[in-house]
Specification:
heterodimer; A: 113 residues; mainly beta; 6-stranded mixed sheet; 5-stranded antiparallel sheet; B: 114 residues; 7-stranded mixed sheet; 4-stranded antiparallel sheet; 57% strand; globular
């Protein structure tokens, strides 16, 4: 089945700096790549996603890039703020195993004021 | 507001007991999922259902069963709970229509098996 690896597992940045989280996947048929943010004690919430026919997508301070050849995708957060502190999960959707989502192991981001 | 709800929110049970976790949604979505979350392991899919008559095993279905009683209800059962099933369990929904891929998560059920 699909294998999604996520790095780093923890990340600390100063407020205003950028943060980058990277994920790799193994199944070349995977075609959808969402990113979820989970604040402490809360449910995961979708913050941005990208489909396999697009190389980059941006939403204000958040962007996602996809390299299908290398099978990796990254989350970029610019001008980080303390409220960006949370655990971030990447995921991939694999159509040939019944449209299952496979999640990375998460990155705990701390933005230091 | 349309939402995804889970009951109970917290549960402590003993080894060998049968337990059911329930999920309800008012979003009108046809697809429902059960995940478990363990520290350092992310979210892993247990079972998913694309409609009332369609149930599929996920990555880690052993020791679990599910029931899709209606489009809005999806229950997860542990027939004989064991300590390594201690985890945070999330239900999620998605709509096969316009935004087919986005998943909406419930608030989670924290299960402890002693």
């Amino acid at each position: 089945g699909e294998n999604v690896e996520q790095h780093p597992s923890t990340l600390s940045v100063q407020e205003g700096d950028s943060a980058v989280i990277k994920c790799t996947y193994s199944d070349s048929a995977s075609n959808y790549f969402p990113w979820y943010k989970q604040e402490l004690g809360k449910r995961p919430q979708l913050i941005i996603d990208i489909r396999s026919n697009v190389g980059e997508k941006k939403d204000q301070r958040i962007a996602v890039t996809l390299n299908k050849t290398a099978k990796h995708f990254s989350l970029h957060i610019t001008e980080t703020q303390p409220e960006d502190s949370a655990v971030y999960f990447c995921a991939s959707l694999t159509p040939f195993t019944g449209n299952q989502f496979y999640f990375g192991t998460g990155t705990s981001l701390t933005v230091i004021p | 507001d349309a939402d995804v709800t889970q009951t109970p929110r917290n549960r402590i049970t003993k080894t060998g007991k049968r337990i059911m976790l329930e999920c309800s949604q008012t979003k009108g979505h046809d697809r429902m999922y059960w995940y478990r979350q363990d520290p350092g392991l992310g979210l892993r899919l247990i079972y998913y259902s694309f409609d009332v008559k369609d149930i599929n095993k996920g990555e880690i279905s052993d020791g679990y069963s599910v029931s899709r009683q209606a489009q809005a209800k999806f229950s997860l059962s542990l027939e004989s709970a064991i300590p390594n099933q201690t985890a945070l369990y999330f239900c999620a929904t998605s709509d096969s229509g316009r935004a087919a891929y986005e998943q909406y998560f419930g608030p989670g059920t924290r299960l402890t098996v002693t």
